[in-house]
Amino acid sequence: MEQGSRPKIVVGNWKMHKTIAESLEFVESLASMLQEGHGEICLAVPFISIPAVAKAASRHGFLIGAQNMHDSEAGAFTGEISAEMLVDAGARHVLLGHSERRLLFSETDDFIQRKVVRALRSGLRPILCIGETEQQRREEQTKKVLSAQLNNCLAGLSPEDVSRTVIAYEPVWAIGTGLAATPEQAEEVHRFCRQVLAQTWNEQVAQTIPILYGGSVRPDNIDAIMEMPNIDGVLVGGASLKPDSFSKIVNCLTMNVT
Ligand code: PGA
What we know:
alpha/beta; 8-stranded parallel β-barrel; 8 strands; 14% strand; binds 2-phosphoglycolic acid
């Protein structure tokens, strides 16, 4: 697949923000601010908003996703949500392995791998988040950490299944800090991830899979980020909460579509 021919994707990660009413208001206001021909838009919203927001968003062609799920089909897991329930509620994507889940809820690569498998079997597209901490970068462990996360979280998957996932590279030190990776730092990592994917699976998987960048993406740095050939889109936290900033990011990707 040639550079620039992978689809462009923008994912908003709302984390623990917005009531259902606020979410519906956001969707209508975002829709009124978008230019023609934008790339794929996905909003990863709180579980409870998925049914209502998926219905409203489908009128505008946005996809709705979840921010997490359990790896089991069903069972005695108080407070958890299954992939089947997410699909039933209208979700199409699910964020898996976000660094907040790894750090605050002790999620391991093994647990995340089981979730990836379950999501794919249930018809959800996993958005697998990977990223190094500040200390790991300082100690020059970035590539080692990322190749382990990729190989562990996608272990045992066929090339076809890997091609149905999305990777989001989110350096932990860039999330919510205002300190985004430079476009060159992100590009270097994205290129490296493709090498790992080519080695473990094959070149076609490596060239087909969308790799998004996340961590302090804003309207004022999106242009430079999207100029990089191996960056296929962005995962946006803080700037996805306001239609004004999120629409500016989405509209920039429209212009970057080649
Ligand atoms: P941020 O968050 O854009 O606020 O840095 C990104 C994320 O956590 O996915």
